[in-house]
From TrEMBL:
Record keywords: Oxidoreductase
Protein's UniProt name: Nitroreductase family protein
Residue span(s) of domain Nitroreductase: 24-82
CDD domains found in the cross-reference section: TdsD-like
């Protein structure tokens, strides 16, 4: 993917030159129900596999739901406001991370590392013409119980994965939000020498 997508270009411009994949990746809510072939889907998790991690602990884990039965299990802990749109997504994935390292100590970087894995997954999805949308709107304890997740794992987000649908397929109140979001200027997030938020 060499070019910025037309739907993205009018909403996002980089100050410095970067690969277009970073701008093209955004979080739509309208999904087609078309299945994602295994070789495409698992390439996303292959990309996540190669994310950096502290001491190479690779603490991230993914639980995926593709069958109707597995997706229904996920719906039991996803917030209603997200279910309105995510039920059309052919794949749902829960990202979690192991909080204990190989020596049995608390792994301080587990969430940081899981975030890197999610980023790699999302970028590979954009490269493959897929969309992803990570949701914090879910009940972690219900999810832990429904999916049999051990106590030493922290649950971070549910990710909808699939092909982008038409904006008009969403409820009217969500249609106006179906555009790529902008970002703060670098001067608001990068400080030289000392913290200097304005």
């Amino acid at each position: 993917m060499n070019n910025i997508l037309p739907q993205v270009e009018k909403h996002r411009q980089a100050t410095y030159e970067i690969d277009p994949v970073f701008l093209n990746r955004w979080s739509p809510r309208s999904y087609k129900e078309d299945p994602v072939p295994d070789e495409v889907l698992f390439s996303l998790f292959e990309a996540a596999r190669w994310a950096p991690s502290g001491s190479n602990e690779q603490p991230w884990r993914f639980i995926i739901a593709r069958s109707e039965q597995d997706r229904q299990r996920f719906y039991s802990f996803i917030a209603e406001g997200n279910r309105i749109w995510c039920e059309k997504a052919p794949v749902l994935a829960l990202i979690l991370s192991k909080t204990i390292n190989g020596r049995g100590d608390h792994l301080r970087s587990h969430a940081f590392d899981a975030g890197a894995a999610w980023g790699y997954l999302a970028l590979e999805a954009a490269r493959k013409g897929l969309i992803t949308h990570a949701m914090g709107g879910f009940d972690p304890e219900k999810a832990r119980e429904a999916l049999g997740v051990p106590a030493e794992y922290e649950l971070h987000a549910v990710i909808a994965i699939g092909y982008q649908g038409e904006k008009e397929a969403l409820p009217e109140r969500l249609q106006e939000r179906e555009v790529p979001s902008g970002r703060r200027e670098l001067s608001e997030t990068v400080f030289e020498g000392v913290f200097a938020e304005k």
